[in-house]
Write a structure and sequence with these properties.
By secondary structure, the protein is mostly helical. Helices cover about 80% and strands about 0% of the residues. The two termini are about 30 Å apart. This is Carboxymuconolactone decarboxylase family protein.
Length: about 110
């Protein structure tokens, strides 16, 4: 677990290092949820990105966009997720998400 926490940026990494038992339980829950259904890893990542957009969480959008890129998901796919937010969430939330994704994809 120490290897994964070292790579995590910011407060999440700090929490994982300070409370490894809590982080282990959180990680186990995420793994169990991933295994609970038929979605592919790619589909799960895009859903998590969409949920992060819906929650208005810039940090989570950055995190899932970074992970998506490390999993070879194209920037155009990430941008489409942001565009799909226009209907249910509104143009301002979609525009914000587009800029957050660009923070990661245009480095």
């Amino acid at each position: 677990m120490a290897d994964t926490t070292r790579r995590m940026p910011g407060a999440a990494g700090d929490l994982a290092e300070a409370h490894p038992d809590v982080w282990a339980a959180y990680s186990a829950l995420g793994e169990a949820a991933a295994k609970a259904g038929p979605l592919s890893a790619r589909e799960r990542r895009l859903v998590k990105l969409a949920l992060s957009i819906g929650a208005g969480s810039e940090g989570a959008v950055h995190s899932h966009a970074r992970r998506a890129r490390s999993e070879d998901i194209a920037p155009a796919d990430l941008r489409q997720v942001a565009l799909l937010a226009i209907g249910p969430l509104g143009l301002p939330r979609a525009v914000a998400a587009t800029t957050w994704i660009a923070d990661v994809t245009e480095k």
